[in-house]
Structures are given as C-alpha cells and as structure tokens.
Amino acid sequence: MRVWPEASMRVWPEASMRVELAVNGRSIAVEVEPRTTLLGCIRDDVGLKGAHAGCEHGVCGACTILLDGEPVRSCLMLAVQADGHAITTIEGLSPGPGELSVLQDAFCETHGLQCGYCTPGMILAAHALLARTLTPTRADIVEAISANLCRCTGYGQIVEAIALAAERLRAANKGPGG
Amino acid sequence: MKPVAFDYARPASVREACAMLADDADARILAGGQSLIPMLAMRLARPSRLVDIARIPELSHIEDAGTHLAVGAATRQAIAERDPLVARKAPLLAKALPWVGHAPTRNRGTVGGSIANGDPAAEIPLVAVTLEATLVVATTQGTRELAAAAFHLGPMLTALPEGGVLTAVRFPVWTGERIGTGFQEVAARRSDFALAAAAAQVALDGQGRCIALAVGIGGACATPVRLDAAGAALIGRPLEEAAVREAVEAATAGLETLRDHHASAAYRRRVAATLARRAILEARDEAAAGGGLNARLAGGQHARLAGGQHAR
Questions:
Q1: Which residues of B touch A76 (CB under 8 A)?
Q2: What is the mean pLDDT of chain A?
C-alpha cells in the first residue's frame, strides 16, 4: 500500500483523479471521478465485465473481487480508495486463454451455477478460502460464501463444488492459483 | 453512477483531516465506507466532500497500554479479529467481531467507523459500552476523551463534535486468571442486523463467585445499554442461572425498547433479557474453565457457528 508524503493535504475536485491499480497482475492507471465505485471502474474504465453489478449497495455479493487477496464488495468501495492496491477479478483466475482454474472447473462439474450471475463472486470468495486452507470443513465453506446470495442453486452444489476443488488441489499439492 | 458528485480528500495526518473537516460543513469522514457507501448509493447521504482517513498511519494500530487496549479508529475489523493482542486483552471484542457484517465487509470496515456510525444494532458499540471503553476524539481545538455510553445518543446519533475525528478506542483490560466472555445475538438472517444482542464479561474468584461483571444489550434500544443493575445485583454471588435470570429481568424491565416491522418492543425486551442471561452464563462457564483464550484459539473460526446455534 502506498502512503502519501506528510503535508500532502490533497483534495481532488469532482472532475477526475488518477488511480493506479494492479488488476490481475497488470498495472493500469485510470482517470475517475471520486464518486465512481470500484465496481464501476473495473467494469467501465478497466473494461472487465466479470464483476457483476447486482444490488450495488452491499447486500448481494455479485460484485465481489479480491483486494490484496481478500474478498471485498467492489460496490462498497470507491475506485479512489483502491488506489495503489492489487485487484483480482474472475478474469484473473484462468490459468490461460480458454482454460478454467480447478475451482471454476469444479463449479461446472457439480452444476454449481445456473444463471451464473452470482458465480464470479462465489468463485472469488471460495478462491480466498482455498488460498487460506485446502482442508476446509463444510462450516468453513458455508461461512466463506455466506456473504454471497444465489437465487438459483440453493447453495448445495456450490458447497459441493468448493469441496471438490479443495480435494483436487490437495491431491495435486497445489494452491487455488495453480 | 449512483452517488451525487463530491470532492475527495486524502489527508496524511489527523491534524490535516480536522482542518479539512473544519473547512467544509458538509464534508464527511470516509473510513471503511461499509455503511457510508450504501448511503451514498441510495443518495441518503449527499456530502460535498469525503475526507478519507483510512491511510492515516496514526489511526491504524493496536497497542497494549497496560490498563487498556488502544485500537486506532481506522483499524480494519478483519485485522482486529485476527489480532492475538485483541484476543488476550479485549476478549469480548474478539468474540463480537465475527458477528460484525460478514467477512468481505470486515475486510474494509473499521473499528472506529462502526462506533462513529452509531447504529443501535451494531456489535462494536455494544462491546464499547459494555466494557466502558473510552473514545478519543480530535478536533482542530485538540483532543478530548468521551465515555462510550455518553457518545451514543440515539439511532445514528452520536456526541462526535462538529468537525471531530474519532481517533482511538480504549478498551479497559481486565486482569486475573478466571475471566470469561459471552456474546449472543438473534438476527433474521446470518450476518443481518441484530434484532437483539448481548455481551458479557465476567471475572470469578477461586470459589467461583463473581467478582466483576459487565453486561450490555444492543439492537433492543435506541443505543447500546449497559445493565449496571444486573452487575450490581450479582457481584459476590456464584452466578446461578435463577439469580442471573432474576437480575437481568429486573434490569431490563424498565427499558424502552425499539419496535419495527421485524420485531415488537415486547419481543425485543424478552429476547434481549434472554440473550443477556445466556451471555452471562457463557462468560461464567468460560471463566470457570480458566478463561476463554485457550478455548478460542482451539475453536478458531467455528466460534461463530457455535454461538449462532446456541442463540437459536
């Protein structure tokens, strides 16, 4: 995290402010109005549409991204607050063009998604869990996705998907990032 | 874009933040933003300027100051939740933190922000009032200290002076071998706002008699309420369930409780009294077992699940 020098006393007017982000490992600078949410910035300025705009006031979790590896709601942050931080979106989890991560693959296999709207947020929340532990209990998995709403699956197959991915990663002796 | 347009300022020190707030009457403080940004999105808040205090180094710290644990106001809830010093010195705060919002909001939300926001259902203000924490507030005139109970005036209404910045929360440290804590909450859904919650911290002597008791309820009234009468009635006694029940019911009988679409005033009073009793008994059992730290370290993140099932 960057800390501004003492006595900077910076005030950015509503016009625009330069924000530097590391999105999925790539450094990028954007000019945003202070009122732009991080979600809006990622979708409209960075151009990655994987973070979904659901409720846009912090209830549904569809906009979940990883900020410095931790899940946060991108609709509950301003882009200017994320200045200097590392962002991971669902687009950053794929190991290569046209490929799926172990976790994404497990969601397909167990039918862990139907409409797909909550899926990026669910997968990122699960990714953060599996980065912490590859031996999560069912309670750990339920807790990890408790901030994300799904209106299709009833959650059962999502929990199964995460357990399956954990099992495969354990067997392969790998983290969720491969 | 949903919020109205505003200026954004990022002061490097508390002194600068106070100057920026004094400079503009419609400026508001932005810390973690987990309550303010939804208000902006719904245009219920229309500030002219946001003063972002999250990067001010002096506001993010957790320090053992002997008689109290000082937690910087912009310390993120997730940091405090994982901090071993918080677990040892302010175990009631450690036990309450997993109930605050959910993990993604705790990754951004701050300890001081939750207090300054003044939501009557919030867990951190409940802990601050229960333990009689001291709040440190800075303005351009200097700093002053306020008792947590005097800070909370009503729903979303606090004694934070105009242009003031909450800089730190000082949680009193209890010393002794046999200290236990209890935290209980009932909400409509997991992670939802508390319809009622209760927090308790107990110290026992070698014979199992209560030598200190702090108990408070949240969500039930316009502000968190410390049940001093229950504490006074139970000091020197062994905290048997019947005595605890009687003391808590007497202490909550006269309280003016909130009512809304979700719960009547009578329901909130009844649930708050029940949760206060359970919190005291939970704290008693933990204290009798030699304090909660070992149990918490072993239980880890399952503490919350166990608590939730117990409350229902």
A1: 33-34, 37-38, 105, 108
A2: 93
